[in-house]
Amino acid sequence: MGPVSRAPTAIEWDVREMEKGGYEHFMLKEIHEQPQALANALRGRLLENEGATKLSGLQIEPREIAAIDRIVIAACGTSYYAGMLGRYFFEDFAYVPVEVQQAAEFRYRNPIIQANTCMIAISQSGETADTLAAVREGIRKGAMVLGVCNVVGSTIAREAGRGVYLHAGPEVGVASTKAFACQVAVLAMMAVAFGRTRRLTATDGQRLVRAIARLPDLAAQTLAQEDAIRAIARKHAKATDFFYIGRGHAYPAALEGALKLKEIAYVHAEGCHAAELKHGPIALLDAAVPVIVAAPDSPEKAKTIANMQECRARKAPVVAIATAGDAEVSDCADDVITIPACPDFLAPVPIVIAEQLFAYHSARLRGCEIDQPRNLAKSVTVE
Ligand code: M6R
């Protein structure tokens, strides 16, 4: 094989971003970077007057968006949970049916890809083996493939050919933190772009764009709860099993919270839809099993409160993640972590930031190796 010549790619990351900058761990630094990371992800992409978003990397004409009749999202781990939220966004804003598939399953299932199927591959690293294999299978079967990646020039970004970068900056800690927040922001912006072609009015779009613009501030307000979150982590530092529950948009946030605690603090944590609890897992609840309940202000809140009461009836300590000032939720909880008021589609960002801080402080109190947890790698490049 002869020499290969490639055009250079400029990476806009500052070398200082690869240092801890006074923080004890990269994970804590990256948690605290979220207001800035979100501001970078949104910069230049929100068109408030038009109630629209501008994502140049998508390179899709409105006519192509109008023709899409199905979206398949493929991803792994934290990116998969962001994809679950993406499903809600695309279905709500653009009225397109969406399936979220574990990338590891995709190529083995002989997936149905038709002429107007759009596939969205989400990967922070852009190098995850299963997600890359799903992209290749999607391309082979004729899907319009879009990448949502953080690392510029990564394999998935290159092979997908079009998509949207997160601009979250380098994520060094093995636990994904700021990438999740930026994935949610980017998926919401993509859904607005699709929605404005398909069903949203300019007024609907303006409402959504104004809400999305608040994300950096929502992140900053949640970070201000760190002392309270550390105190709650200390209270449960001896617990060996946790449940994380939620409904609606808070359900993927509950799954992500459980994943963070498992991978960083080595504590068994099970993420579960709040309604599923009574279909089996509730048998495990007792005074030694705390339940972290994502209960933001939302249409599902009353049902979630009923689930909190079921947990307390089994003597399980209940930690609610609730909208500031929500007495209904706090009256049913033993401890409350507050997040700022926001539309429920955005609440997963502050909820997950609170969960990241809880996992971080739980891990620190247990003396765990936070940035390089055992058995885990930053990019999973093998099947
Ligand atoms: O780089 P990717 O987003 O493709 O990585 C996917 C997962 O391996 C990753 O999100 C993993 O679950 C993280 N360690 C979670 O914190």
Q: In short, what is this structure?
A:
By secondary structure, this protein is of the alpha/beta class. It has helices at residues 26-32, 34-42, 62-67, 77-94, 103-106, 129-140, 155-160, 178-198, 202-212, 215-223, 226-235, 250-265, 301-313, 327-330, 348-365; strands spanning 46-47, 52-53, 70-75, 98-102, 117-123, 144-149, 162-165, 241-246, 268-273, 291-295, 318-323, 335-339. The strands form three sheets. The chain has a five-stranded parallel beta sheet with strand order 4-3-5-6-7, with helices on both faces.
Description:
- This protein has 383 residues and is an alpha/beta fold.
- It folds into 2 domains: 15-213, Rossmann fold, CATH 3.40.50.10490; 220-365, Rossmann fold, CATH 3.40.50.
- It is built from 15 helices and 12 strands.
- Strands 4-3-5-6-7 form a 5-stranded parallel beta sheet, sandwiched between helices.
- Helix 2 packs antiparallel against helix 10, helix 4 (77-94) runs antiparallel to helix 12 and helix 10 (215-223) packs parallel to helix 15 (348-365).
- The two termini are 28 Å apart.
- It binds 5-amino-5-deoxy-1-O-phosphono-D-mannitol (M6R).
- 5-amino-5-deoxy-1-O-phosphono-D-mannitol binds next to helix 4 and helix 12.
- 5-amino-5-deoxy-1-O-phosphono-D-mannitol (M6R) is lined by residues 76-79, 123-125, 128, 131, 174-176, 259, 263, 379-380.
What labels describe this entry?
383 residues; alpha/beta; Rossmann fold; five-stranded parallel beta sheet; 15 helices; 43% helix; binds 5-amino-5-deoxy-1-O-phosphono-D-mannitol
